[in-house]
Automatic annotation (TrEMBL):
Name assigned to this protein: TcpE family
Keywords noted in UniProt: Membrane, Transmembrane, Transmembrane helix
Transmembrane segments: 27-50, 56-81
InterPro entries according to UniProt: TcpE
Domain of life: Bacteria
Amino acid sequence: MDWEPYDYSIVYAEPYRVQQITSNWRLPFPVALVNAATFLLVAIFEYLFLRSFISWVISFFPPAGVVFYIGLPYLCVLALAKLKPDGKKVHFYLWDWFCYMIRMMNGDCVYYNWDKVSNNALEELLFVNKYVYLED
């Protein structure tokens, strides 16, 4: 029987789950911390920036408040669980993209042949006009 190494990457990819909130308060089921934070951030964003639009919609259709404040954040949590750009989780991908953009906008370095090179170390290339005559 051949020995096969066990792949532990599945264990490390498991999200951190919270069930005990305080010493006196406990949830009936564990909740992934990333999902709870995403839900709260989307709900807070809606409340702070889209409150007037949502209240206008609620004035015509009162159950829309449940859709906006519970349904939309939950759909965002489900969408973020499914998306994996470049094989990464979305929050890691966005952080890497943000760091990359800061480095590129800073402009203190350039990349040549996958190596980071400082702008100061680059030599200026000079092209001289030389004529080449081909023999007939």
